[in-house]
Amino acid sequence: MLCASRPNRESQFSQRFEALRKSSANLHERIWNEAVGAAAKQPTPITASFIASLNESIDLEATRIAAKRNHVPGAVWVLLLCVAGCGMWLTGWEAGTARGYPFLARFLFPLLIAVVIALITDIDTPQGGLITLDERPLLELNDSLK
Predict the structure, then answer these.
(1) What are the b/e assignments for 72-109, b being 16+ CB within 10 Å?
(2) What is the 3-state secondary structure (H, E, C) of 34-80?
(3) Using an 8 Å Cβ cutoff, are 21 and 65 in contact?
(4) What is the pLDDT of residue 2?
(5) 144: helix, coil or strand?
(6) Is the Cβ–Cβ distance between 126 and 133 less than 8 Å?
């Protein structure tokens, strides 16, 4: 049981993520204002290219934030487990009526189901697991901007 005075890891992650997102939005706004001011003073193809690149980087961050917030819905998990359970039951039933229990039904099919569910779970949690998002490029960019 979790202690009420100690926040759990997910809430700590959410609070840190929200603080970093706000800081990033402020930084983007400052850079955008500077770029628009520079483009108004000297409208050249180079400043237009810079504005387009800056806009694309802001859009990419929004895409990254959306990807971090999106998770597999609970209904999809229930459906996945129901389909896996029905598949296992039908495979076992067919093997039982055939008076045999082939290798595929006994070992390979359950292993494949477990691997698929584990992979989906791992992809759904980008901050942990075997498949993680590498945030070093963003941290290096942040350091270079300071």
Answers:
(1) eeeeeeeeeeeebeeeeeebeeebeeeeeeeeebeeeb
(2) HHHHHHHHCCCHHHHHHHHHHHHHHHHHHHHHHHHHCCCCHHHHHHH
(3) yes
(4) 39
(5) helix
(6) yes
Q: pLDDT per residue over 15-43, tens digit each?
A: 777 788 888 888 888 888 888 888 888 88
Six-digit token pair at 93? 């039933």
Q: Where are the domains of the chain?
A: 7-70, 71-146
Residue with tokens 């959410």: 14
Amino acid making up residue 43: P
DSSP string, 85-101: HHHHHHHHHHHHHTT--
- Specify the pTM: 0.51
Q: Percentage helix, strand, coil, to 5, in the chain?
A: 80, 0, 20
- Per-residue model confidence as pLDDT tens digits over 99-146: 766 777 778 888 889 999 988 888 887 666 777 766 777 677 777 777
